[in-house]
Each structure stands twice: as C-alpha cells, then as structure tokens.
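Course assignment 3, question 2. Fill in each field.
Student: A.L.
Task: Predict the tertiary structure for the chain below.
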Amino acid sequence: LRGGKLNDREKDCPGNSESWAIIDGVRLGASYLTHVFELQLHNQTTGRSLDKATAYSIAVSLKSGLCALLGIEENEVGCTTFESKDKNGKSGYSICLYDTATNGAGYVVQAPALLGDMFAKALIVLECARECDNACQACILTYDSQHHVKDLNRRLALDVLSKQFIASLTLPKAFEVF
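Answer field:
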C-alpha cells in the first residue's frame, strides 16, 4: 500500500511490514449446501438451445413468478444461468433457481409442481407494464439482476415464453384426472 499519512511524505504504508498486513495471492470464498432447481429450455420455433441473455431473462422472470406464488420475498430465491449441454450434446444455457438460505428453505423444490403457474406469472412479468425495450424496474431489472444488465432482454424471453408455450403446459380436459 502507498503511504501519504504524513503530508504525503511517506512512500509506503508503515503497516506493510506488520504481521497483519495485506497478503497477496489469498482469495476468500465460501460454499454451502442449498436446494437447486435446474431447467433446460429450447426455443420451440427454432428448436435451438437458449442463449445467455434469453436464459437469464427467463430465469429472473421465473424467480419472480415462484416468489409471487409462494408469497415470499424475492431475496429468498436466487437465479443464475450456466453453460450446459442438452441430451443431444448441443451447447446452450441452463436456468437455475436456488434457495439463498443455507441448507435450503424448501422453496425451489416446490417449483416442479408449480411450473405451469410459474411460467404464467413469468409471462406477466415479461410483458412489462412500461413496455420497455429490454429491461426496467417494472419487469426484470431487479436488485439481484442489476449487475447483469447486458444479459437482460425481455423481448428475447417473450419469443420463447409465448402464450402458445404457456398453453401447452396444461393438459387437455380429457386427460385431467384430478
């Protein structure tokens, strides 16, 4: 570290030679167990795997939808995307929702049972009350997603989560048992 404490006459900080000084090459990190929900989607129109911006935009909207359905704060659930391969070995991006509480709070494990409703809520979020170009505070620009603005594009996500896609998630009445 630089000095400067005594009218800029010090060249180096006197603490540099102490045992409590900053140590180079040390990285801090943490790991913990939690619940995770992973989803791989393809664009039904093109048949292609999702790109990063589309996947992340859908992830943020699904997170919002799940939290709304469960009646929890959005900081209880996190979302991310990561590069993965589909069952045919083609590269794309997976959507990942996870509980932010250590050891999981059990929120994202409910996602599979709520998938149709989650997508319906996500579609409402993506339709944006302000009709923005890519992302705004009315849709998918949130406290958690603000550092990923380049990966937010609600219009790309809407191309995948069309009303036809949402409708295809429900069974025809003839096949419903319960």
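Instructor remarks: The chain is about 25% helix and 10% strand. The longest strand covers residues 77-85.
Grade: pending
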